[in-house]
Amino acid sequence: MSMAATGSIPVDDVPTIHCAIQALGLPKVFLPKARIYGEDEPARNLYQVISGAVRIYRVLANGQRQISAFCLPGDFFGLGVGEKNAFSAEAIAELRVLIIKRSTLIALAGEDNEIFRQLWTLIGQELNRTQEHMLLFGMRAPERIAAFLLQMAERLSCHNSVPLPMSRQDIADYLGLTIETVSRQFTHLERTAMIGRATARLIVVHNRLALSQQHPGRTLPT
Amino acid sequence: MSMAATGSIPVDDVPTIHCAIQALGLPKVFLPKARIYGEDEPARNLYQVISGAVRIYRVLANGQRQISAFCLPGDFFGLGVGEKNAFSAEAIAELRVLIIKRSTLIALAGEDNEIFRQLWTLIGQELNRTQEHMLLFGMRAPERIAAFLLQMAERLSCHNSVPLPMSRQDIADYLGLTIETVSRQFTHLERTAMIGRATARLIVVHNRLALSQQHPGRTLPT
DNA sequence: CGACCATTTGATATGGATCAAGCGATGTGG
DNA sequence: CCACATCGCTTGATCCATATCAAATGGTCG
Predict the structure, then answer these.
(1) Residue B218 — very low, low, confident or very high, per pLDDT cuts 50/70/90?
(2) Gap from A131 CA to C10 C1', Å
(3) Does the model's pTM come out above 0.70?
(4) What is the pLDDT of residue B109?
């Protein structure tokens, strides 16, 4: 869905940015909890996750931390327009990334307008994801949790065992809930046999259908 | 802020898309409540608001309507990537827009990569706005309302009298509150002399500073 | 083994939803 | 020109989902 073509132009034919970051990207490793960049710092780089996970977040004046996105292997981050970062980024688990300078991309784009088209596509996908994320806030806690688990299962492309890289606090801050509510919802899903918990971070999805019915994401065509 | 340059390349020098839609855009008028496009319809056009206002929304399976954005004069909408619209769009007040086909833009972009760069910039601004919108859901009702009023005052670039084009229900569906809560918060702001109400839709901001202190948008640098 | 941190569980409080009614504009027909 | 219907908004009373406060449990590492 998120990889759909744009207008009549297919998206995946010439993955220039992918090539560029593969060829020119600088590999770097971050330890868990390491800061990758801070809000309001100059936005200089584009990152692609190789392994591990990243949280993108902002801390509000009331102390609330809102996590805007989790970045998983394959994901890009640092895509925004503007001179400064709008959010901070931190490694969750041990993280390997490739880094390419924006200026390098811009220079490449001078020769090949494919780069800008792909920046448009990539940022458009991020917009789609952010909009879907926003819709979660119109749902109740059980539905948010179900949607989150299904999303993680899909994005980690795992069959039924979902290894969550993030803590309960991270999940809570992503979903706009408290850690206690998250925990209770997991317990409830386990008691109703929709999921199992191998460990706290390793969830087994037993009943994907029931989970997906929890969560009213889109109007069903009548 | 949202018009900041990107990297070392200034954004506003060659407003190609603006020129294109000025020169080639088809003017069209919509009556209040008229549908502009529906979710899942093919996304064929880019729109710019001349006058009036638009709501961009989706209806969830539970009946909740989440408004993702209001578009005001000058704003673009229909920018997404992907073949289909992710949301529906409706006129709120009587609406005048300019319409340009995506295919026309894409064709222009073949000659001039400025188009794609600007699509990147425009969608990036929409992403910024959506992310800021998401942060509202981490706040309490009074703060959401205050942030909303300040945002409207700024976007409508009015001094103190803010003519809201949308209904209380629209505001509620944008902020994730009920119409009753919205109404009560307005009443409270009036009682504490932060705002006045000339009519229900015409708000006078008396104390911008106090309003902005209600709402903990960003961590203040210590 | 013991300290530490993440997670779970329990008891209580509360902000905003829900249910229900009243009010004020705007418009229509008699 | 006025009764009356309609629609959007406000106000009041009560309820409930989730937050908050508090404590127990469990897993990991020295």
Answers:
(1) low
(2) 36
(3) yes
(4) 86
